[in-house]
């Protein structure tokens, strides 16, 4: 469930881009939803099912 999400931050060019695990396996577009909640424009799941947020 969404309650068990782990949030990771990676430094990219001095900016922090949030990533989420556990949302790509959920039905619906939880990746984009979680990214929009954190202030991004949307999100995309990669091959290892890591949700990567896009900046506004």
Itemize the secondary structure elements and their pairings.
Blueprint: E1 6-12, E2 15-21, H1 30-37, E3 42-45, E4 50-54
Antiparallel strand pairs: 1-2, 2-4, 3-4
Report on this model:
- This protein is mainly beta and 56 residues long.
- The chain has one domain (2-54).
- The protein contains one helix and four strands, in the order ββαββ.
- It has one helix at residues 30-37, and strands at residues 6-12, 15-21, 42-45, 50-54.
- A four-stranded antiparallel beta sheet has the order 1-2-4-3, with helices on one face.
- Mean pLDDT is 77; it is low at 1-14.
- InterPro entries: Scorpion_toxin-like_sf.
Overall geometric form: globular
Report, as a whole number of angstroms, the end-to-end distance.
Answer: 26 Å
Instruction: Provide the succession of SSEs.
Output: EEHEE
Number of domains: 1
The overall pLDDT, averaged over residues, is 77
Structural class: mainly beta
Kindly report the spatial arrangement of strands forming the biggest sheet: 1-2-4-3
Rg from alpha-carbon coordinates: 10 Å
- Report the portion of residues in β strands: 35-45%
E-strand count: 4
Largest sheet: 4 strands, antiparallel
Low-confidence stretches: 1-14
- What percentage of residues falls in helices of 4 or more residues? 10-25%
Count the helices. How many?
1
């Amino acid at each position: 469930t969404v309650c068990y999400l782990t949030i990771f931050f990676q430094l990219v060019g001095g900016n922090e881009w949030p990533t989420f695990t556990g949302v790509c396996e959920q039905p619906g577009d939880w990746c984009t939803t979680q990214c929009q909640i954190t202030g991004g424009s949307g999100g995309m799941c990669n091959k290892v099912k890591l949700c990567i947020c896009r900046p506004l």
